[in-house]
Amino acid sequence: MTYVTFPLDKPLDFAAIGRLCIDLNANEIHRPMEETMTFTKYVGGSPANITIGMARLGLQTAFIGKIANDQMGRFIEDYLQRNRIETTNVVTDQTGAVTGLAFTEIKSPTDCSILMYRDNAADLLLTPAEVQESLIARAKVLLISGTALAQSPSREAVFQALSYAKKHGAVIVFDLDYRPYTWKSAEETATYYNLAAEKCDIILGTREEFDMMERFETNPEKDDRITAAKWFDYSAKIVIIKHGKEGSIAYTPDGVGHRAKSFPAKVVKTFGAGDSYAAGFIYGIMQGWTIEKSMEYGSAAACIVISSHSCSDAMPTAAQVDDYIERCNRGEITAS
Amino acid sequence: MTYVTFPLDKPLDFAAIGRLCIDLNANEIHRPMEETMTFTKYVGGSPANITIGMARLGLQTAFIGKIANDQMGRFIEDYLQRNRIETTNVVTDQTGAVTGLAFTEIKSPTDCSILMYRDNAADLLLTPAEVQESLIARAKVLLISGTALAQSPSREAVFQALSYAKKHGAVIVFDLDYRPYTWKSAEETATYYNLAAEKCDIILGTREEFDMMERFETNPEKDDRITAAKWFDYSAKIVIIKHGKEGSIAYTPDGVGHRAKSFPAKVVKTFGAGDSYAAGFIYGIMQGWTIEKSMEYGSAAACIVISSHSCSDAMPTAAQVDDYIERCNRGEITAS
Amino acid sequence: MTYVTFPLDKPLDFAAIGRLCIDLNANEIHRPMEETMTFTKYVGGSPANITIGMARLGLQTAFIGKIANDQMGRFIEDYLQRNRIETTNVVTDQTGAVTGLAFTEIKSPTDCSILMYRDNAADLLLTPAEVQESLIARAKVLLISGTALAQSPSREAVFQALSYAKKHGAVIVFDLDYRPYTWKSAEETATYYNLAAEKCDIILGTREEFDMMERFETNPEKDDRITAAKWFDYSAKIVIIKHGKEGSIAYTPDGVGHRAKSFPAKVVKTFGAGDSYAAGFIYGIMQGWTIEKSMEYGSAAACIVISSHSCSDAMPTAAQVDDYIERCNRGEITAS
Amino acid sequence: MTYVTFPLDKPLDFAAIGRLCIDLNANEIHRPMEETMTFTKYVGGSPANITIGMARLGLQTAFIGKIANDQMGRFIEDYLQRNRIETTNVVTDQTGAVTGLAFTEIKSPTDCSILMYRDNAADLLLTPAEVQESLIARAKVLLISGTALAQSPSREAVFQALSYAKKHGAVIVFDLDYRPYTWKSAEETATYYNLAAEKCDIILGTREEFDMMERFETNPEKDDRITAAKWFDYSAKIVIIKHGKEGSIAYTPDGVGHRAKSFPAKVVKTFGAGDSYAAGFIYGIMQGWTIEKSMEYGSAAACIVISSHSCSDAMPTAAQVDDYIERCNRGEITAS
């Protein structure tokens, strides 16, 4: 059954708006960051990673965001272009803002953390007037990400992008991606997440992220179905709620909770799992696949990313995902 | 024809959320404020004035807001209580914020201005968690006012109040009341006015206020009907657009533009006209009167207020409005 | 004995830098402000009051400060000019700042309080570059006041004025006038008060104000002589420490603690006592009078101000002070 | 001739207060940072570098500063301790501040730049109350650095440290180290640099840094002798003014301008030259050497640092400096 219909006549498959930053990944891993002496630089930020993932899978993509007017900003723009991502709406800040940073610490495959630099980050300075209506008018899908709602004027830019997407009929995907940095209060967070989610067709998040959104509501059992039902009353057609190791469930307005099998992986670190999953899943839905098959595709993409050192740079091509699934099916890959 | 249906089983006729401040009105008028030596203190703020107006007209009312923990704040709370306005959700600030002030200058009946003190104003510090769901659940009508959207956390408190009003079926009135103070940019203003207006049943504002909301839209002729039609696609049932001396027009989803006659007045100053008009109009609609009769009632209430020295304190009773209309009809009142 | 020598060849007797604001004095007094309905407007701010006092006493005076670009600001400038105070260095703010306000509450002659509006106050926006070196070069005396140290850039403007006064040989008077508003911390306060006091010839303050400055020092008994001795090691020649009802003591580097008799008064309120005392005292010292006679003159000036409704507007002329002293000496005035 | 006398009975040779951060040095050099893929982590910040330099030269040292409560902060503290620098007054921030960062770009030996992260930096949050009087009481020398004056409360902490140093008789060294980041205006900078410099015995800076301090003064020819003379009127005994390639001149109150020969070096990058020069020079003066010999020692130390990849980590021991000078004297080292 088809839950989401895409405007197939539009030339741009996928556009995302939001965070665009630098990951500095520890080269010496399996130790605390205090003992890490060198770091490798990658493009990062959840919506940037997903867009890179979509581009690697072969889609026409574009990014809407703001970069610092410095060496880090120029590196990001260049990397997007080398990945064939349209950057006509990647604006360069002129106020002296910096590029957000994420230093990663990999103590063990299951004990990873991030040291964030988000003060005065350029990506949060995107303004509503800088969002190009013409770009969104060309796009089949607009993806928004929660971190871009954390501050003005980026927050208003996201709402303006949502307004354009609604007007021009793009399918809207909301990757909740809640991170406490830069938000002033949990109440503020709940307010804007809810206002944005009302306008979205596909919502992906963890159970904890949905709990945060239900701060002023009554769902004492944290019941997925109550959560999903709220959004079906607005615009949603698919609500994916992730339960960590217990797996994810995709809810649809017909009352079905869709689950998919997972794949083994030789885990290096957990960063990037969600972004690659989102890319793989949205790609599948856009191909007209079932929700279950799309979820499997997302899982396989995630396995590839968590088996390698980077997030963005490890995003797989469709051939790599297909190959991974086949090798799993042949039993050639086992968990670490 | 009835355009708006009120939940008649609810005990509280009217609740408003937002600005609550002090007017300091020049005693020596018809001169520049430089030459004014004494000022008289009144409760002020558009939603407070409207609530006082509704209470004077005989309705059960309540206010949702925040006051400074000082002599000005205590004066405000006492004044509301003396006007039989419920203050259970008037919260006292504990951070050292001050009461917003408006010094009025009346150079002539048509040349009035306001000197505003809005820095660190207590009313803008109301938080979403302080808004009482139970109060809104008891209310037939919730009125919101644009100035409360100007800053966090008051902005989020308004969206939370809107969420409760939607959940419990209150009719929502939006008095645009745009004032440039405290807003960071015109873009920010447009974003939140639009997000709020999507959820409202009755929207009142000037043509210039609606223009401000259409900053990112296409309405080159500033056509009232294009403006109104947008909101009928969301929740609106009545959109009143005020054209200054050319009068106001109330648009309804059936395509009708309702107009009403106006009344003469001996004008002292123009302050408070909009607030008394709003009170009279909403009162009329709640009585089940036609839109035209309600607009006339609002006009008569406004005439009474602009003929006197204060805003809040001059809000008329129903008997006073009836009397004014009768005297106008008998030709006993002529314009100044 | 002469403790301070003034550069008598300079044409301007007295210049002050700092706070310049509006007092709104309750007209209905001897009640809480909640019950006050009308207020009368006066120029206020400690250094402004002192300057008005000096002008009334017949000296050539000037003010260095910043006013809001509004009706309040224009009223202040006009009032200074009508009192023959030079305003060539009274700068008008262009950023939308407001005029600081002080609402006074007079519950009884001994129970007075002030409700302050100091957010975004124009006087705190004076910059170092706006301070006219040529004006200070013409002045016998520069008075600085602690409130102007509370925020940047006013804080730096005061240090720049001190630098010019040192360079050109003006006698520097520091009226501590500590008020907690707008200071971020008690530590910050102590730092800048001390840096400024190091450069001053005459320092006036209450015992509590000197305690605040000794936050990082050792004076467990709060011993006036330890306090004064510190400043004699820098530039001070007179240190006046006020002990409320026990009276004031003026310390000098020769080890003497000077005291003076006080006068009876029919007290209306206590506001303005310190400012009129400072004006009378500095005037006396500039006349070459003994410290004791100068202190008496300050006391008499203070008695006149606390017997009337305003501060600035009640500042006495020399004839009025002389007359007050004579009437007290004849026993015509007794305490209220 | 001896210009500065040190309190030889104190057990701690050298204490510095101020910036303490992380350098991330490009591993792939001689290219724009856009093309640098990996970075190596070092302790950085001018006063930290100087302290490390003093410790390497064999002195008893301590640091007064604040570090972030994260992996970067812990790395810094550990590095200081491994270099035998006392860290009893290195305070850990508890507000979520981050460690300042400096990404270095080395395009060529003469074309180097720095990308700074100074927003919400922990080192600028040191408060006056956190400065240990007992530590400063034990120190022969206190070094302050201009960047710590850039913001409150670090600015007040420096003035408090100066106050303690004066009280206990430490020799005070001011390394101007002006960097525009975090200062609000050039006027503000001039104000606090001057207030601090008034209290210092030895002042080191570039001609441009002294120009910045003379913003409100008259020195049209930028005459070193006018500059130096001003500070001799306060506390200074040595004022070193650096003229880039033309070399440095050390002025003393006797009117002498001291110059020293320089050494050749195989330059990798210019970062760290000033810090190692300062360490070498102060070390020499503390040994009782002539100013000229101390300047030579500083130059040799600087040559060693600019010939290597890091700043802090390349600070030489006394044996290394001696060896470098000897090899230069034997003609074994020539310029690159």
Automatic annotation (TrEMBL), chains A, B, C, D:
SUPFAM superfamilies the record matches = Ribokinase-like
Specify the Carbohydrate kinase PfkB domain's residue ranges: 15-317
InterPro entries (alphabetical): Carboh/pur_kinase_PfkB_CS, DKG_kinase_firmi, Myo_inos_IolC, Myo_inos_IolC-like_sf, PfkB_Carbo_kinase, PfkB_dom, Ribokinase-like
- The question of whether Nucleotide-binding is a record keyword is answered with yes
Q: Which GO terms describe its biological process?
A: inositol catabolic process
Keyword flag Nucleotide-binding: yes
Q: In which pathway does it act?
A: Polyol metabolism; myo-inositol degradation into acetyl-CoA; acetyl-CoA from myo-inositol: step 5/7
Example GO molecular function term? ATP binding
What Gene3D superfamilies does the annotation carry? 3.40.1190.20, putative 5-dehydro-2- deoxygluconokinase (2.20.150.10)
* UniProt keyword terms in alphabetical order: ATP-binding, Kinase, Nucleotide-binding, Transferase
Protein origin, superkingdom: Bacteria
Describe the reaction catalysed, as an equation: 5-dehydro-2-deoxy-D-gluconate + ATP = 6-phospho-5-dehydro-2-deoxy-D-gluconate + ADP + H(+)
User: Per the UniProt record, which EC number(s) apply here?
Assistant: 2.7.1.92
- Top-rank EC class of the record's enzyme: transferase
UniProt lists the family membership as follows:
Belongs to the carbohydrate kinase PfkB family.
Tell me the function of this protein: Catalyzes the phosphorylation of 5-dehydro-2-deoxy-D-gluconate (2-deoxy-5-keto-D-gluconate or DKG) to 6-phospho-5-dehydro-2-deoxy-D-gluconate (DKGP).
The UniProt entry, under PANTHER family, shows: 5-DEHYDRO-2-DEOXYGLUCONOKINASE, HEXOKINASE FAMILY MEMBER
The identity of this protein, by name, is 5-dehydro-2-deoxygluconokinase
- Tell me the organism: Paenibacillus ferrarius
What gene name is listed for this protein? Answer: iolC
